[in-house]
Amino acid sequence: MSAPLPVRSSGDHAVAIAQVNAHLDALSARFVSRRALLELVMLGLIAREHVLLIGPPGTGKSAVVHAIAGALEARAFEYLIGRFTEPSELFGALDLNALREGQVRPVTAGMLPEADVAFLDEIFLGSTAILNTLLKILNERTYRRGQFSVMTPLISCIAASNAMPEDPLLAAFADRFLMTMFVEPVGDHELTELMRTGWRQTAEPAEPIPPLGRGVVAELHEAALAIDLTPIHEAYAHVVRKVRLVGVTLTDRKIVKGQTLIAAAALLRGATAAGPEDLWPVTYLVQSRAQQDEVREVLAVELKQSRNPVLTNSVARATYGPTAHAAHLTEQASLLLESRPALATDSLYESWLVRVETMLTRIDAAFDANTIPQHLRAVRASLEGLLEAHSSGRVPDLTAPATVEDDEAD
């Protein structure tokens, strides 16, 4: 029997966790409304699990994955699969010299079998031969062709498609991807920021982000394996039972592997043991958009405590719980305050005020005066103060922080 992994304090990995958070901050600054996607890919890397992204063309799936793969100290492989893609385009052509000697040995240099991170676009267009070979790599990290067999260093495979497949055989293949995120176009309230960011990157290509060291991801993966999951086993089983009651199928494999995500979430929260705050990844185990929405509602009580200081947006997307939703709104409102034009005479000031009004509407739709958390209450007061100052013709001063006393007096 193998010896148990040593339990280390969360402080032992604080530097690595901070590096991951800073990396996500730098990457998300380049994309509008894609922080949750970046977080989920990062969670997959730390848990050494695979991620499936479903969404219409033009929603930035490829760009985001390309950015995060390029900002890692890792060998990456990317390919857009078509109906006529040959297996050799992914796994390497046969070595002709070896073939002359009667041996079947592919040349895998620079191909998927030697990649640490893989991104496969339009994954479900792959032939049976491609998908069968991928299954071996995804499940066992082994590439086999004939008598040739080699272990692959794959950390995580991120795949993308415009829609989930209807073919039962392809659906069974999709189940090998532990997490599924449905990617939507940027919302109306962020269109201006999308245009501004996109144009800025067209005119001035962004500076390269220093790569996140391979050792950082490896360290956090090992640390996640040492997380104590005992406190949440019964709670996790209860969550799975509730999910099954609404007709959502989670395979035994997914239920077991889902624990790796819970452990990684607990680690990034700075804990040494998992708690109810870390059960939120269960939402991403579901591979139907409608059923993900249903799971959020059914598990509203069980997931209401969900939180994570590093994976804020993916938690909010997974739960719609008050705590996560408030944190997400606070972050968006704070960014909105920071983007305020310097002068009220600026041509963009009026459109910025419209965004402020929209944000206030979103906050008020989610919380009333009795339920709004204090941190969101403070940032809401700043937004409301700006609108009142504008309507009265006064120039607002955002250099002074919002006071709790004023908010509570209301």
Structure notes:
This protein has 410 residues and is of the alpha/beta class. The protein has three domains: 10-203, Rossmann fold; 229-319; 333-409, no CATH class. 49% of the residues lie in helices and 8% in strands. It has helices at residues 14-28, 35-47, 61-70, 88-91, 96-100, 128-140, 168-174, 191-203, 214-225, 233-245, 252-268, 289-298, 312-319, 322-338, 349-366, 374-391, 404-409, and strands spanning 51-54, 76-80, 117-121, 142-145, 148-151, 156-161, 179-182. The strands form two sheets. The chain has a five-stranded parallel β-sheet, with helices on one face. A two-stranded antiparallel sheet has the order 4-5. Helix 13 (312-319) crosses helix 14. Residues 1-5 and 397-410 have low confidence and may be disordered. This is MoxR-like ATPase. Keywords: Hydrolase.
Q: Which structural class is indicated by helix and strand composition? A: alpha/beta
List unreliable stretches of 5+ residues.
1-5, 397-410
Span of the ends, CA to CA:
62 Å
CATH architecture of the largest domain: 3-Layer(aba) Sandwich
Q: How many structural domains does the protein architecture include?
A: 3
Protein name: MoxR-like ATPase
Pfam family, one: bpMoxR
EC number: 3.6.3.-
GO molecular function: hydrolase activity
Which helices and strands appear, and what pairs or packs with what?
Elements: H1 14-28, H2 35-47, E1 51-54, H3 61-70, E2 76-80, H4 88-91, H5 96-100, E3 117-121, H6 128-140, E4 142-145, E5 148-151, E6 156-161, H7 168-174, E7 179-182, H8 191-203, H9 214-225, H10 233-245, H11 252-268, H12 289-298, H13 312-319, H14 322-338, H15 349-366, H16 374-391, H17 404-409
Parallel strand pairs: 1-6, 1-7, 2-3, 3-6
Antiparallel strand pairs: 4-5
Helix pairs in contact: 1-2, 1-9, 2-3, 2-11, 2-13, 9-11, 13-14, 14-15, 14-16, 15-16
GO molecular function: hydrolase activity
Protein name: MoxR-like ATPase
InterPro entries: AAA+_ATPase (IPR003593), MoxR (IPR045427), P-loop_NTPase (IPR027417), RavA_ATPases (IPR050513)
